[in-house]
Design goal:
Residues 1-10 and 139-153 have low confidence and may be disordered. The longest helix has 18 residues, at 48-65. By secondary structure, this protein is α+β, with helices and mostly antiparallel strands. It has helices at 48-65, 68-73, 115-128, and strands at residues 2-5, 8-11, 19-27, 44-45, 75-83, 94-99, 105-112, 159-163, 169-170, 176-184. Strand 1 and strand 2 form a beta hairpin. The protein starts with a strand and ends in a 12-residue tail after the last strand.
């Protein structure tokens, strides 16, 4: 996350109050089994304008790290969510929850409409998690792109699927609620020889 004036932007590691956040999702369309859920940078922004300003740069970073076909065929989305302590959720029945070391299960992110929608939002949830005090989510929980709730993700601090109405899950600590995901189209940055 970044906050400050446009001429002085400083990192903000913790989100201590409810606020909108934005994320650039770069979803690969080919080789989905071998690539992460997002090939983009895990940056989270406080304004839509900041996120859109970074779109072409994020595209260039991806082009420097991945094969041109992967980057050119990736689908880019500008995602927005409410993040922070005790977020009110709406609509969906599907949540990401974490098991604590004491055996409690706390919903962390939701309410998603379907289980498959979780995959679309997981990189954003993963990027926000380290910025939430007491999120209890293990670092790099979703970084490998696997679907939360898989057998390999069991244990304290790991995200897994949960559903509204589950009596074993506490829904009082949700810190991520998806709002919108809109397709965006980055432009390739070209630097001519005369610019060097």
């Amino acid at each position: 996350m970044y906050e400050g004036t446009p001429d002085r932007v400083t990192p903000s590691p913790l989100i201590t109050r409810a606020r909108p956040a934005f994320f650039l999702l770069a979803r690969p369309t080919g080789s989905a089994d071998t690539l992460p859920a997002s090939i983009g940078e895990p940056d989270v922004f406080y304004s839509e304008a900041q996120a859109l300003d970074a779109l072409d740069i994020h595209f260039a970073w991806c082009a420097a790290r991945f094969d041109a076909d992967v980057v050119d065929n990736a689908q880019w989305y500008l995602q927005s969510a409410m993040v922070g302590p005790r977020i009110a959720t709406a609509l969906g029945e599907v949540y990401l929850a974490t098991d604590t070391e004491t055996g409690e299960v706390n919903a962390a992110a939701g309410a998603f409409l379907t289980e498959s929608e979780v995959v679309h939002w997981a990189p954003f949830v993963d990027a926000v998690a380290p910025r939430i005090p007491n999120s209890r989510v293990a670092s790099a929980d979703l970084a490998d792109g696997s679907i939360p709730g898989s057998i390999s993700k069991a244990g304290p601090g790991r995200l897994r699927l949960a559903y509204r109405g589950d009596a074993e899950v506490s829904f009082s600590q949700v810190w991520f609620a998806p709002m919108d995901s809109t397709r965006v189209y980055p432009k390739r940055i070209h630097i001519g020889d005369d610019a060097l």
